[in-house]
Amino acid sequence: MTGPAASPGxxxxxxxxxxxxxAGDRAVELMKGWVAKTRRPEVMSGLGGFAGxxxxxxxxxxxxxxxxxxxxxxxxxxxxxxxxxxxxxxGFDLVGMVVDDLVVCGAEPLFMTDYVACGRVVPERIAAIVxxxxxxxxxxxxxxxxxxxxxxxxxxxxxxxxxAGAATGVVERDRILGPDRVRPGDVVLAMESSGLHSNGYSLxxxxxxxxxxxxxxxxxxxxxxxxxxxxxxxxxxxxxxxALIDAxxxxxxxxxxxGGLANNLARVVPDSCTVTIERSTWSPAPVFGMVRxxxxxxEPDLEATLNQGVGMVAVLPEAGVAEAVEVLGRRGLRAxxxxxxxxxxxxDQARVRLVGxxx
Length: 359
What we know:
Layout lengths: L12 H4 L4 H16 L28 E9 L3 H8 L5 H14 L4 E11 L4 H18 L2 E9 L9 E12 L13 E7 L8 H11 L6 E2 L4 E2 H5 L7 H10 L4 E4 L4 H6 L7 E6 L7 H10 L3 H5 L6 E8 L3 H10 L4 E9 L8 E4 L4
Parallel strand pairs: 2-3, 9-12
Antiparallel strand pairs: 1-4, 2-4, 5-10, 5-11, 6-7, 8-10, 9-11
Helix pairs in contact: 2-5, 4-5, 8-12
Pathway: Purine metabolism; IMP biosynthesis via de novo pathway; 5-amino-1-(5-phospho-D-ribosyl)imidazole from N(2)-formyl-N(1)-(5-phospho-D-ribosyl)glycinamide: step 2/2
Main location: cytoplasm
GO molecular function, one term: phosphoribosylamine-glycine ligase activity
């Protein structure tokens, strides 16, 4: 954030227009400590430069390194954070949406950059947002290499903000996961979500609005208020998935985000195969039933919008399942076999179908 210096005896023209350079500088000072916690040995630059520098020389030790990149935002979950006045968890949602799109191809996240746009820079609020991003990057094992805070008076209301980010990872070429590896006889391993994660919030907020429910409403089935449930951070799977890839043979992975389980899993299923998912293998957390019942949302609409309790899936040979479940369990992540892969009977057969009812 740059601009003209303040005039002697008064604020600068830029400040008069609504952009507070000094507040931006204070925000940078407040966030420096959190960003430092994400530092990897390859990071060559500090906060405040024009570009982040990352030493790529260690990649030369790889046989054939391939870079992977992903970018995303959080969506309307930020409206819940703003309404609740809780700003230090939304970063987990941002990082999770980005780095877990990288790991599905087998890539290790290396570094991330963020972008925070706001109507007015409140240093403590910006620092809280970046604190969450930094803590999530540390959990994912990637460096927060840089970012930008932009103040947009007139475009955004003073207390409004949005966040976005991009990350880069690396994977050996011969270890890239994807549909070309999937075979009939493989099984689908589900990994539990922490809740709604960061998708479907336009639907959820609409349902709550129509029902007249506020975020401060306590729901016994949830064991907390609606707002507290909606702000549960997205689970970050990157290190869990990398540990799984190192332990057993994995053919493909799918990050369950917007579009739900079936639509995202279909992205890694080849035309020659079809996947059957058994709903009876798990029970979605109460928040999913709350949205369904409160809004009268049909099961197909719910499954096409929300993750229904599954945040990540792996497709792997059946022989590796027991070890895979054990590896993830030791890391505190519940996993279970939820489906199987068969040969497709024809070009019109659905790539993924869900059968049965939840237990």
